[in-house]
Amino acid sequence: MDDKIFIGGGAEPQYLLLKRANRHGLVAGATGTGKTVTLQILAEGFARAGVPVFAADVKSDLSGVGAAGALQGPFAERAKQIGMTDYTGEACPTIFWDLFGLRGHPIRATGEEMGSPLLSRLLELSEAQEGALAVAFKMASEEGLPILDLKDLQSLLTATAERREELSAKYGLVSPQSIGAIQRKLLQLENEGADKFFGEPALDLFDFMKTRADGKGYINILSAEKLIQSPRLYSTFLLWMLSELFEKLPEVGDPEKPKLVFFFDEAHLLFTDAPPALLQRIEQVVRLIRSKGVGVYFVTQSPADIPPNVLAQLGNRVQHALRAYTPTERKAIKAAAESFRPNPAFKTEDVITELGIGEALVSTLDAKGTPTEVQRTLIRPPYSKVGPIADADRAAVQQASPVAGKYDTTIDRHSAHEMLQKKAEQIQKQKQDDEEKPSLRRPQSYGEDHRPAQRTTAQRAPARSRRQSYAETTVKQVGRSAVNTLVREMVKSIFGKKR
To answer: Are residues 128 and 93 both part of a single domain?
Structure first.
């Protein structure tokens, strides 16, 4: 039916109502129990209903949604058991994305869009380092310095270090040690390939919300095989997308169907080592984004991976088998069982450990928003291919993408790096000019207001001549006087004082 998604069958068919799909959900279970297929059939159901989907593909298993499936082997038997007689293999409208631009369209964001708090989490900064980065962003904002890529960030930090005394007096202590630590972590991030994520053209999140001409929604697959090797970048990127959607989308209340659905695989990475302030932010976004028409579905091994305040907001649940080998795992199974509305027909805690591959306990929200009784369910076969898509098929899908060519070429426009570099060059040139300029003043013993006027060489020549003539006359006069005096003294000595 158009208003719900068929999940599977058991004692009775299980559906997910589209009107309640924005109340978020959880797909949990141990490795190898069928979580990926459940994610795939839910994504297919949303796409067929005209709802765009975003899903991270951490094992390259989801790329098969772009090719038609075939009913064979265990899936044929499963379809027979649940009475699924209308099966037809069908490819879903698909767009492939990749932060590194290797197996899909590149995804980029600017440093300004990411912001200081998320960058601090990405770089694993201490409190002092986080404060220094916040000061650098504040300076950039006040002085109109666009922060687009890692070059801009490095140049901004260099400028912050050079002006740390001024900035410390204005905003609080900015130590050179903190700046140096941030610069080293940025370099490490660049070496891991994250520099490809920062820059332009930046992702327009509304490109995730496209539908095809026939009304079907596109499934946006993020190729995350390489990205998952940098868990901090993976989780920060997903949280950034969720936060950006929350900021940009208008309020719509509870629509007849979601405007967009997110599937966060390996969801525990979003919460691992997250500081309390960030956890509060995640909880707030998850709680409020449903009013923007966005559904968020966490995919993880155990419900215990999700903080209680977030878990309480996940109304639609599919629980695959869990294994209990330790006391901690037995507690997790008990907690998972208690989160379902009980079914008098069986004991939920026991069934969780007995489920086979492709089986799950399912409870969704009914038309009134109330959780249904938990049911043991055999998950239906997907209409699309299970497993990775062939490289040739991937290339064909990407070539036919509605965003082909939009993000493929990097743009490096004038930003903080170039502006700060130009300013530094101007300061250096001014300094050189000041050093090379000849002095037009000679030291004087009197004040500036009483210095004599400067005279030309022609004006000074007669004065020199007069001084020279006067000196010669004086010498002659002194000489004659001396000779006369000497003669008189000699006459006196010979003839006496009186003649």
So the answer is: no
Asked whether residue 124 is assigned to any structural domain, the reply reads yes
Residue 450's pLDDT band (cuts 50, 70, 90) = very low
CB 149, CB 412: distance < 8 Å? yes
In a domain, residue 271? The reply is: yes
Within a domain: 419: no
List residues bridging with 221 in a β-sheet: 55, 96
Q: What is the value of pTM for the model shown?
A: 0.82
At 280-296, the pLDDT tens digits run 888 888 999 999 999 99
b/e sequence 350-362, b meaning 16+ C-beta within 10 Å: ebbeebeebbbbb
- Tokens 């765009």 belong to 52
List the domain range (segments joined by +) for residue 169. 111-195
CA torsion 18-20-26-32 (nearest 10°) is -30
Q: Which residues pair with 456 in a beta bridge?
A: none
State pLDDT tens for residues 303-328: 999 999 999 999 999 999 998 888 88
pLDDT of residue 318: 97
36 found inside a domain: yes
- For residue 498, pLDDT over 80 is answered with no
Are 123 and 218 in a shared domain? no
